[in-house]
Amino acid sequence: MPITIKGLPRGNLILTGAQLQTGYTPVTRTAGEAPPLSATGVLLEEILARAGRSQGDFSSIITTAGDGYSVEIPGPVLRTRDILLAYRVNGKAQPPRTIIPGERARYWSKSLAALELIAPETITFPRADRIIFLEALMENLEALPVPLLLERCGIRESPFVRLRSADSLEKNEKFKNFSSGCILFTGGKKEIPLFTGPALPRGMRVKGLLTVQIEGTVILSLKGLSLKTGQSRPALGEVLGEAGAAAGSPWVLTAPGGQTQTLSPEEAFRGSLGLNPQGQPELSWTSADLPVRTRLWQIEIDQKF
């Protein structure tokens, strides 16, 4: 299967397996764990250098396998790691695949079909102006298919979706791939949010899901936030910061039944957010020196200000 490299100044570069093996310098690297594997192939940096570019010129690279599986290699990895387009693994010929020595296998792709070079600022997301809570979306559900999630949130198609996990993984996923998955809670007491799907390869799954961002909407898991911070009731300001929301704005709270209430920036700063005994998001704050508690579906910036 030929490999198409997209995003070069002079147009796409198409390489066959034979061209990889005869047109570039062969390199062998050891990668992976338990046990490590020995891979032989071509460094992506050499291919890009012949086109007048370098891995560090790009904000990320999206690799796509022949079955449609895709993964984004982020900028920090591009700037610090070799990326090997391997055609031989442990002495055996293989369809071309990406292997990144010293990096987690979640960034690797088998049966490589394409690499898309993403220029800086090509994939951008605005500051969040709406936060919807995953636990409210999943009330009484064992699993939440992404199409149902999009319908419930009133979200339309967008080129990319940004996924973040409690262990600091951040990846941009193509909307089509994201739409084929689902979200569920797993682990002891089902406390770990997981993005998965029967047709998704293991490398596309995100365990400990923290946020999903589509345009200005962020879907945030309080269980995922608790995994990251160790706090069961973080301050609302911390939740807003984790979602990448603008500070200093009034916020409109919406309860599951549709009731709304506006919080001033000062009230929002004093609020704390957690899960009630039924596992649903609940905000606590003080209004006129009186304690207030309310269940939450979402919070969004008050557009009147």
Tell me the layout of helices and strands.
Layout lengths: L2 E4 L6 E3 L1 H7 L3 E5 L5 E7 H7 L9 E6 L4 E5 H6 L3 E6 L2 E8 L12 E7 L11 E4 H4 L5 E3 H8 L6 E6 L4 E5 H5 L2 E5 L5 E5 L9 E2 L1 E6 L2 E4 L1 H8 L6 H7 L8 E4 L5 E4 L1 H6 L1 E4 L5 E7 L2 E6 L2 E4 L4
Parallel strand pairs: 1-9, 10-18
Antiparallel strand pairs: 1-2, 3-4, 4-7, 5-6, 5-9, 7-8, 10-24, 11-14, 12-13, 12-17, 14-15, 15-16, 17-18, 19-20, 19-24, 21-22, 22-23
Notes on the protein architecture:
There is one protein chain. The model has no long low-confidence stretch (mean pLDDT 88). The radius of gyration is 22 Å and the shape is elongated. The longest helix is centred in the middle third of the chain and has 8 residues, at 146-153. It is built from 9 helices and 24 strands. With 305 residues, it is of the alpha+beta class. An 8-stranded mixed β-sheet has the order 13-12-17-18-10-24-19-20. The protein folds into 2 domains: 3-118, Sulfite Oxidase, Chain A, domain 2 (Alpha-Beta Complex), CATH 3.90.420.10; 130-301, no CATH class.
What is this entry, summarized?
With 305 residues, the protein is α+β, with helices and mostly antiparallel strands. The protein has helices at residues 17-23, 44-50, 75-80, 134-137, 146-153, 175-179, 222-229, 236-242, 265-270; strands spanning 3-6, 13-15, 27-31, 37-43, 60-65, 70-74, 84-89, 92-99, 112-118, 130-133, 143-145, 160-165, 170-174, 182-186, 192-196, 206-207, 209-214, 217-220, 251-254, 260-263, 272-275, 281-287, 290-295, 298-301. Strand 14 (182-186) and strand 15 form a beta hairpin.
